[in-house]
Structure prediction request, 409 residues.
Amino acid sequence: MDIFVARQPIFTKNERIFGYELLYRDGQSDSFPILDGDTATLDVLVNSFLTIGINELAGEKLCFINFTENLLEEEVFAKFPADRIIVEILEDIPITVSLLQKIRKIKSLGFLIALDDFVLQKNVTLYDELFSIVNFIKVDFLSSTTKEREAIERIVKANYPNVVLLAEKVETRAEFYEAKEAGYTLFQGYFFAKPEIIKGTEIPTNMAQYFRIINLLRDKSASIEEIADEIERDVSLSFKVLKMINSPAVRTKSKVRSIKQGVLMLGLEELNHWLYVLMLRETRINHSGDGLALIEASLFRAKFCDLLARRKLLPNASEYFIIGMFSLIDALLHRSMNQLLKELPLSDEVAETLVGTATEMTPYLELTIACDEVRWNDIVAGADLLGIEHAIINDFYLEARRWAAEIIK
Prediction:
C-alpha cells in the first residue's frame, strides 16, 4: 500500500533550512484531502517514524507536526522523541487553563512548542502565561492582516524574548523582506518551496493481531515468548518492532537476533505505547488487501526456514525465522534491500544473507525459496546439501503452508 508524507522546509534569515513541517497527504497531489485532524496527524507520525523513517524524511532536522486537542489529551506526543518533534498547537484549540497545564507537561518532557496560524483573540486572559511557555509563534502571512500581525509582533518583541516568530505562507520576496524587517527569524511558504511529497510503501496490517497482542500485554501471566510468538505472526508488526528499536527514540547499538530479543530490548511498556499509537491510527483508516500473497509467502518462508534450522539443531534458529520473513521485504515495500537493512538492527550475517552474500545461512534460505516457488530440482539439491530427508522436507512444507494460511485467514 502506497503511503505519502509531505514535508515543507522552514528557513532561517540566511535562507538555510532550519527544519521541516510534516503534512498529511493521500497521494502525489499537493493538497490536503477531507480528513479529520486526528487521523491525519496519526498517519503522519506512523508513516514518518515507522514506515519511511524520520531520518530519511528530515535528516537531523527538527520536524513541526500538528497536534489536535484530542491527541494532546491522549498524550500521543509522549510516544515520540522530544529531540525530533516540535509540537504544533492548532489554532482551533481553545486557550484554557487545562490547555496550559497540558503544554507545561509537554515542555517538561523536553518538547518545543509552536502555536500554529496564531491570531490574537479578544477577551483571552491567559496570553501572558501562554507566551511564557511556547517557543514559536507561527503567523500566517496569507490570511492575516497587517494590523493583526503588528499586534502580535509588538507584544512578543516587548515582553517575550523566548519566543521565535515564524512567518508562514510567505509567497513573495516582498513578504519575506517585510517579515524580516518586522523581527521574524524563521520563514515558510511557497516563495521558498512547495511541500515535497515523499512516497513510501506500507505492509498491510492484521488488525486482529494487534488486539491479541494488546490483550496479552494486559495479561500479567503472559510470557515474553507468547508475546513474541504473536508478533512473529504479523510481517507488518515484526518489521515495525525492528524499526522502533532502530528509531531515534530507542536506538541501540545491539543487533537483534530474534523478535523475542527485539521485544526485550524495546520493553513491554514501550511496545504497548507504540501499539497504542498504531491502533489509534489503524482504527481510523482502511487498508486494501494488496500484498497479501507476498505476506503469506513471507510467513511461509519464515516458518519453513525456522523448521530447517531447528531440524539441524542450530543455536540461532530464531535468526533463520527472520531471514525467511524478511526475504521479500524489498518486494513488499518497493525499496532496495540494502536501503531497508540500514534501518533495521539485524546481525551482520542476517543482513549479508538477505542481500545475497554467501553465508552459512544461505543454503537454508535458498532451499526455503525453492520450496516456496516449487522448483523441484533445486528442492532436491538443497535438501541433499543440508542432509535432510525428502520426506521431512515435504512435512515441513505442509506445516509451513498451513501455518501461513491460518494466519492470513
